[in-house]
Amino acid sequence: MKSIQTIVMVWSLMLVASLTNAAGLLRPTNAQLPELTIKEHHVDVVIESGYVTTS
């Protein structure tokens, strides 16, 4: 029974993690510079043996 609960918990965490978004930009300390913008952003995620790598 405990293994089923563990599987459900891990699956739920993976589902929630896949639905989350992150947002935010660094701002230049010099007020005379324009704010930064992101024109394009792509991330590849690989999960192998419990380790995650992004590129």
Report what the structure shows:
It is a single chain. The protein contains 1 helix and 2 strands. It has one helix at 2-19, and strands at residues 45-48, 51-54. It has a two-stranded antiparallel sheet. A hairpin with a 2-residue loop joins β1 (45-48) and β2. The model has no long low-confidence stretch (mean pLDDT 83).
Brief sketch in words of this structure:
This protein has 55 residues and is an alpha+beta fold.
Instruction: Please count the helical segments.
Output: 1
Largest sheet: 2 strands, antiparallel
* Radius of gyration computed on alpha carbons: 18 Å
What's the shape?
A: elongated
Approximate strand percentage: 5-15%
What is the helix fraction of residues, given as a range?
Answer: 25-40%
| Strands ordered across the widest β-sheet | 1-2
Order of helices and strands: HEE
User: What is the average of the pLDDT values?
Assistant: 83
Return residue spans where pLDDT drops below 50 for at least 5 consecutive residues: none
Provide the structure class.
Answer: alpha+beta
Which descriptors apply to this entry?
1 helix, 55 residues, two-stranded antiparallel ribbon, single chain
Topology overview:
Blueprint (H helix, E strand, L loop, with lengths): L1 H18 L25 E4 L2 E4 L1
Antiparallel strand pairs: 1-2
